[in-house]
Amino acid sequence: MKLLVPVKRVVDYNVKIRVNPDGSGVETSNVKMSMNPFDEIALEEAVRMKEKGVASEVVAISIGTQQAKETLRTALALGADRAILVDATSDMKQDIEPLLVAKILAKIVAEEKPDLVIAGKQAIDNDMNATGQMLAGLLGWGQATFASAIEISAGSAVVTREIDGGLQVIKVALPAVITTDLRLNEPRYISLPSIMKAKKKPLEEKSLADFGVDPTPRLRVIHTDEPKQRSAGMRVGSVDELIEKLKNEAGVLS
Amino acid sequence: MTVLLLAEISQGHLVTDHVARALSAVSALGEVDVLIATDEAGADAAAQAARLRGVRKVLLCEAPCLAHGLAEPVAALVRSVAENYSHIVAPAATYGKNILPRVAALLDVMVISDVTALKDPETFERPIYAGNAVQQVVSSDPIKIFTVRTTSFPPAPEGGSASVEVISAPADPHLSAWVEDRIVVTERPELTSAKRVVSGGRGLGSKQNFDAIIHLADKIGAAVGASRAAVDLGYAPNDWQVGQTGKIVAPELYVAVGISGAIQHLAGMKDSKIIVAINKDEDAPILKVADYALVGDLFTIIPELSQKI
């Protein structure tokens, strides 16, 4: 079984981001970048499937700037067999929309013919939570989103999904698209030897022109602002004072 | 302009609060039809939706393949009626987030997730980077498809009397099948619509200690929330998680106990009206967003609070 794992380079999840005062966007130069945490989980799951003999090959893909090569090298060090970079922009500030990403991925799927695509449930920069579902829609494949457990059996995947109120188990026919939730697994750390080995693994480069897709964004960002700041609060010295404030000042307790 | 609102269905019931909030978000755009996709027991949900003020018509589609809200058949259904609408919308809960991006791809349009404000029929506001920035986007798509962050809008009131029109479902694509639901049964208020929320974090130290949070919540009629750390450590179930990857809440009162206040947690609760933080660490980031902060040992504070409140 062949697996495709899309990975995205995003601002590291620990970074407190800065919004440019002119409303032009979020500061992304000279900021620590990493692999999107949900994509690490997707890749980890794919590599575990390979280690269990369920999968035979894991291909990692990233779509963005040349810098996304670093993210793909990380993917290779984590256990992917080979990688594909789609050079889609030279502008670090430009976020490629999920619809365009899904269209490019659909073309790569047509070429690579994987049995399963495992993607993260959302990227922590645009917080869209859409690419996996869009890809499944374009391909006419089944989808299993927000997965916290995956079991592959003859021609299908039994997936436990995290839904509001609890869990839902569904069975989806392969080929399919699965998106990962936080609790699917705990990604491994990268060892030094695996970083060295990753340098020798194949990394193929493609350009947007190879895919014949219209790159015009459907959504035009006109402004990016700081969220409303909360006004400073106060320290209270005791439980009694807290209860008094909540009742008489804030009016949220009676 | 006419809007199609995909009603959120959970366990065969209409999630009325979410639907009513999404309805009030889009009411200014024009007439709103509510689509109910369910198995052969949709009459109650349809009647409930018809009572919401601002609904023109309820479209009820009952078919075995629509049970349990599987994405493929529901998306095919939405697509089959999409051409009659300028906007297609759903509450931004797991149900809508699973289905609407698929619909958008089928129609070759983008999806706009977690909309917090509509400036005009083409201009939307949404949070990015875990709520640390707010983006205004203009859509050039012929049909605008988006999910609504329900906590940003008040629920539309009852008092409507829309008609119910039964429509038929497209053929079942047979791509997936439901196996089982494992739903946590609770008497407590639902987390995303509760007026009060008490949340516990790593500071609780154990599942047993987390009971003190549950006790306090029950005492004030609050829903119980948790940080990711508390969930990962097994103190609380997954669906109690508040944050970027869990639920977004905006109650009147949010009490954070033993929660440091990581960016990802703040993303889920910083729009609460009043935030109370109880933490022993003077430097915990949660204290910077709290309206009332009590620094001290939660193991003495929480029992005292439960007793005196």
For this entry, give a set of tags.
heterodimer, A: 254 residues, alpha/beta, Rossmann fold, nine-stranded mixed β-sheet, 31% strand, B: 309 residues, 2 domains, five-stranded parallel β-sheet, 9 helices, 18 strands
Short summary of the structure?
With 254 residues, chain A is of the alpha/beta class.
Q: What features would you describe in this structure?
A:
Chain A: GO terms for molecular function: electron transfer activity. Chain A: Heterodimer of an alpha and a beta subunit. Chain A: Residues 23-215 form the Electron transfer flavoprotein alpha/beta-subunit N-terminal domain. The complex is a heterodimer of chains A (254) and B (309). By secondary structure, chain A is α/β, with parallel strands linked by helices. The model of chain A has no long low-confidence stretch (mean pLDDT 96). Chain A has a single domain, classed as Rossmann fold (3-Layer(aba) Sandwich), CATH 3.40.50.620. Chain A is built from six helices and 13 strands. Chain A is globular. In chain A, the strands form two sheets. Chain A has a nine-stranded mixed beta sheet with strand order 9-8-7-10-6-1-4-5-11, with helices on both faces. In chain A, strands 2-3 form a two-stranded antiparallel ribbon. Chain B has 309 residues and is α/β, with parallel strands linked by helices. Chain B is 26% helix and 30% strand. Chain B has helices at 16-26, 43-50, 71-81, 94-106, 207-219, 228-232, 263-266, 286-289, 298-308, and strands at residues 2-6, 9-10, 13-14, 31-38, 55-62, 87-91, 111-115, 117-120, 123-128, 133-139, 144-148, 163-166, 176-183, 196-200, 223-226, 253-257, 274-279, 292-295. In chain B, strand 14, helix 5 and strand 15 (223-226) form a beta-alpha-beta unit. The radius of gyration of chain B is 21 Å and the shape is globular. Classes of the chains: A alpha/beta (254), B alpha/beta (309). Chains A and B meet through helix 3, helix 4, strand 7, strand 8 and strand 9 of A and helix 3, helix 4, strand 7, strand 9 and strand 10 of B. Strand 12 of chain A pairs antiparallel with strand 10 of chain B.
